[in-house]
Specification:
Elements lengths: L2 H17 L15 H20 L7 H24 L13 H24 L18 H16 L4 H14 L12 H16 L2 H6 L3 H20 L6 H5 L19 H21 L14 H18 L11 H16 L6 H7 L3 H11 L1
Helix pairs in contact: 2-3, 2-12, 2-13, 3-7, 3-9, 3-11, 4-5, 4-12, 5-7, 6-7, 9-11
Length: about 375
Amino acid sequence: MSKTEKARNISKVKAKAQKRPKRLPQYTDEKGRDYFFDNAKFLLILFVVVTHSISPMKTDHESARCLWFLFNSFHMPCFVFISGYFSKGYINKDGSPKMQRLFTNILYYLFAQFFMTVFEATVLQDNSVTFSGMIARPGLWYLMCMTIWLLVLPYVVRIKPPIVIVAAFVMGLLVGYDKNAGGFLSLCRVINHFPMFMIGYYFKKEWLFRFRNIWTQLLSVVVIALVPVFAYFNKDIIAQRLLESSYNYKNSYFKIFKEPPVMWINRLLFYVLAIVLCAAFLTLVPRVKTFFTRFGARTLQVYVIQAFIYPCEKKFLWYKLPFFESYGVPKMMVIATAVTFILSLKIFEYPFIGIAKIKLNPLLKKEHQKK
């Protein structure tokens, strides 16, 4: 082949390459569902399951304690943040709430609460358990909090955003002084996590992607990696109950800022840590479709069903089996990861689809006809 012919072929290849349109990365599916948030939700529910699985091991395993501190510092605050983000469509244009969504959320909570109570009373043989709609069973508090946030949201959004966010943080700092704040209506968690909910509500994802690049991602990796290192060398100053957001200041057993006038600083430090880690995590979440993206739409079923597994681990002490004597924490994390994928399967979604099909409007019409 002559040099002239080679040059012609090269020019033809270049011409075809120029005509061929560049394939842009896809960030949403054909229905407009955002891959980024589905990826984030699945990873967060994975962290929830892993955290619950290694929680009983943290007194005997230093690695479990450090990882528990890392995940508990941001997985639920970030989940609440995303819940706030997706609550934008809850308010209609006329300012009225979409009652069906609130109704469905209440049904999710009541059904889960009922079956969880029955499960603990029969299978786990806990005679002290009684059904209560006002005190959420362990692991189900998020559903109750979400219900309350949806109830107050139509009134809160009438106030200017800066005032709402500042007031939410102030309430979060002050509620710890209330000795009665605790399990009833999950009020402690409702108020403590409310700032993240409202930040998510007002958040625009463009703000995150504007600063997302290789350097911020590298910085995020460093920040996240430093947290368990900090936990390892500072275990004497970490108040674990603070991370659970369900205890008042008196019962949190603070190691620093122990005097009442400055106890609120502990909560403030938690807010700072949670926000930094949430930002770092979201900076690293893939924007394109991955092998686990489709499971991000089914995090609710994982959250509810895993709540039944967690007390079983504490009851039957699975983590003390001979299988976990060596490399117990990594083995438990692998099992928790497998459980997360299994619970994300379509078959476990059907009960929740059935509950969501219960419509509020027919019930209101029947009540109106009776009157």
